[in-house]
């Protein structure tokens, strides 16, 4: 084992302490999450980071700038629901006129006249999103709460009774396919990547749907029809592999079993429902984080795509909200990291100033561009979960130190137990080659070209512990993990024996051939940064 000179190390540690103390004097809002946004963290992991908005908010330049900084997806809060498109009272047009306007008329449609659909707001929203690179969750096609009662009645009139099931099936097909056809026939329809086909069926009593179809339990035929109509439309436009069809509901954590049964029924013949939109209007007192994530895990285990669709959290205080969201996001991210098909997270409101929950502060921004402690905790949850466990593929690598621009090697290109590990000028010898093997616990081993494993001497947790080679034994002393740095494809290599707190380090920033490699507390210094170059 090579002896370490501690004088310069002590100076470095003191200097780091001074720098850290100086950093602590900078205002907190300037040091926290300086470069992270919801878009480059959660958008990176899930593919979609979203929020609910209105057309007026999208037209406001400051709000649109905020949206583009943090989100690549929007959901219209109310302006794409059936009552917004159909109106409070019907404006009837003939079937022929409807066909001329591009509406879809089922061959068995019994109504001589059909209601006009107002696409003015939708078209404006799609155009803005298209021009600004924002995706759209289309919310929603079939919903009891904001569908005018006249839509279910004979002659589209409140003066008459409710239509038959077959006639309502025709009206549902007319509405779903007309809306979707309009979107995808237009110039800007490509921004719509998900449809909430059916919203809150499990809570749809009393409603026009219930009065016509009755109580269908967890195998509702009309819900299955709705998904079939939507799927048919996607199939027509060749979008079945790129656009998702979701069942969206609240209290999904209380009704996961019924939802799983229903979706399996819908998909019995063919997969026409991709999965679940988990509305997440939560409270810090209920559901518990574990209760919520148990339902999320159940949906993932059932093979469903999951989108978290309407997230806000009633709370006792900002600190209470911050703690709850940190724990919740860590659980959600861990399920994603384990392979869960979670494809989006949508907050329900730009800030507390526009929340739908009266008298509450349930969001992570207090006002536009003014983040709360909960925002920083959400970002921290991402950093703690996702920026320390990157995966490099199995294979042979040269491992180059950034500071010295020299390679990890064994002394004298020798194989054996207790052979010292150092850095040296690249020469391509076996002693500079390392085979990386990933393991199920998230760590990897490095086997030298001479047949021995990279190893921490005695499995020590101490700063200065020497790095050597040793026969493979499966011990934690031979397990490592890479962590991201601010530089692309440059990593720290942390050690399992220290629970990722310490890392491979070229002692004292030395750049000479033969400079020793040891373990030291990870600060992300240049002497602790490495590049993996495929052999």
Keywords:
535 residues; 8-stranded parallel β-barrel; 4-stranded antiparallel sheet; 25 strands; disordered N terminus
Q: What does this entry look like structurally?
A:
The protein has 535 residues and is of the alpha/beta class. The strands form 7 sheets. Strands 1-2-5-6-7-8-10-11 form an 8-stranded parallel beta barrel, surrounded by 6 helices. Strands 18-17-14-25 form a 4-stranded antiparallel β-sheet, with no helix packed on it. A 4-stranded antiparallel β-sheet has the order 15-16-20-19, with no helix packed on it. Helix 14 packs parallel to helix 15. The chain is 32% helix and 24% strand. The protein contains 15 helices and 25 strands. The two termini are 29 Å apart.
Short description:
By secondary structure, this protein is of the alpha/beta class.
Give the distance, in angstroms, between the N- and C-terminal Cα atoms: 29 Å
- How is the biggest beta sheet arranged? 8 strands, parallel, barrel
Helix percent band? 25-40%
Count of DSSP strands: 25
Query: Helix count, per DSSP?
Result: 15
β-sheet strand percentage: 15-25%
Q: What value does the Rg take, in angstroms?
A: 29 Å
- Within the largest sheet, what's the order of strands? 1-2-5-6-7-8-10-11
Low-confidence runs: 1-34
> Could you say which structural class the secondary elements and strand pairing correspond to?
alpha/beta
Shape: elongated
Q: What's the overall average pLDDT, rounded?
A: 91
